[in-house]
Amino acid sequence: MKNSTPLSVKVTILGLAAVVAAIIIYPKYRFADDRPALSKSLRSHLSKSATMDETSKRGGGSIPKISRELVKDAEGGSTLFTFETAFIEGGIFTMGNPLPKSSPDWHADEPLVTISVESFRMSTTPVTATQFCRFLNSIGEDETRLARYYKSGPYNDYRFSPIFFDDADGVYRCNPGAEDTQANQVTWLGAVRFCQWLSQLTGKHYRLPSEAEWEYAARGQEGRLWPWGDESPSEKHGFINGMRIAPGSNRYRGMPVGHFPANATPDGVLDLISGITGEWCAGEFVSNPSPDQANVRNADEDNLEEPRVVRGYYHRLVNRRRGNLISWFLLGDIPHHEGRVWTRVGCDPIEAPQQASRHAFRVVEDLRSLEWTEAGR
Prior knowledge:
Blueprint: H1 7-25, E1 55-58, E2 61-64, E3 66-72, E4 79-88, E5 91-95, E6 113-117, E7 120-123, H2 129-138, H3 143-146, E8 163-166, E9 171-174, H4 188-202, E10 206-207, H5 211-219, E11 239-240, E12 243-244, E13 278-284, H6 291-294, E14 308-311, E15 315-316, H7 325-331, E16 337-338, E17 344-347, H8 353-356, E18 359-360, E19 364-366
Parallel strand pairs: 13-18
Antiparallel strand pairs: 1-2, 3-4, 4-7, 5-6, 7-19, 8-9, 10-19, 11-12, 13-14, 14-17, 15-16
Helix pairs in contact: 1-7
């Protein structure tokens, strides 16, 4: 008997068969959540608590584990703001992406490298909008120059600018409700200038963290997957559907820093991976960094053409995998994979208004007993 199956049905069947075949050939594309099994050493920190010791021993003495810093104006009278720093004991660790090259979450610019890190103090939370506002209004520079430090943008549910320039008064102000959120929209140069200003006011050496210091604070010598441990991000860490939003809300607007205690590292550092923003580090972005390149602590302002390292993004595009043409055409790219403590990207240090909307930063106090000058920070 002659086959009477309509042509449209045949085409539909062939199309479905092609999709099934592609998924079978490339099972790694079935779910964006798929990831290879990790070594036991990377999962050894699952049950470790994120509580903080009151003090930490160093060199036979005792120093505060968590210290509150008081910042006053240049005259030493009015208090501008306070912030806390956590002591991070130095050590040796392996920086980089430990996943196999066959994983879609593996990237060539996240190589494994063993690095020795000296002890330092790190602010427990990112610099807030209020703190950065104090800086912008205190340094006495015109709006054109300040625009190199901060990129104002829209204040909405998806990309928000916590600070705006008030034309009426000629000063920077925080948008209502954004005072204690991360100071995003900050350029790398703006973050460097803030650290220099803070150093002048306090007499201490504050700077951006090196890339190695940032990752060391986030993963520790144990090799945590996320700053708090190996448990996948959830609401208690401040994440819903992969983004940092207010509990019970569908808005992606930033929350106050330090709002989620479960987000803390064992040393008491919070918000290292916060869902919306990344954090500036001191050094230039190098695709295959050596230990020295990964541990650059002095911000080089001479060459502002090269991208700088940003850490802490929760999302990163996965690698495109070459293979079967049908699989590539039908499935394309998985949208994103979960950024972890080793996720790194490079961004323009000044001229990037779109990217700057996702950039925050935190400060590090340099504990090395070395002379330093304004030119050598």
